[in-house]
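Bumping with the actual sequence this time:
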Amino acid sequence: MTPFALHLLRHGAPVLPGRLMGRTDCAPTPDGIAACVAQAADLGVERVVSSDLQRARAAAEAIGPTTIDPRWRELDFGDWDGLAPDQVDSNALVRFWEDPDASPPPEGECWSSLVARVSDAIDALAPVPTLVVSHGGAMRAALHLLCGFEQRRLWAFDLPYGVLVSLRVWPGDKPSAQIVGIYP
């Protein structure tokens, strides 16, 4: 099949940065929205898709007409959701980062559940130039699925607020991709 461009854009800075914000619906800053709009300015996409959380949705809607897809949400951090990392038991947090399937946050989502829903979201994409405004965890899940990165290796990617990861995706039963650019 013919490849298509897929651009993954992490939402801009939220009003409460540096927190474990999975389902926490924190607003973005105006500067965070502006940074995302600037990243998307010359992409030439035919479709914009966004997580339903306002920190992603506000930027996507500022870019253009948007399809909302909650499968692009961040990992649900359960009881840790909305907390700063130093407010979480450090041993539990280390266990989570080492193996987020075996040690998910209490009442939270495991890594494989995030991967499964992002996989469904990828499968639903039309093979046209697309921008997805999402979250760091969902972007890492997409890189795992499309590029074959092991889960532990994904933490090596710095995905700051407003980062754009551009991919060339080959659709099919098992889609694959090549990273063509990372723009902080």
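The tokens above came from a reply further down the thread. The first strand starts at residue 4 and ends at 10.
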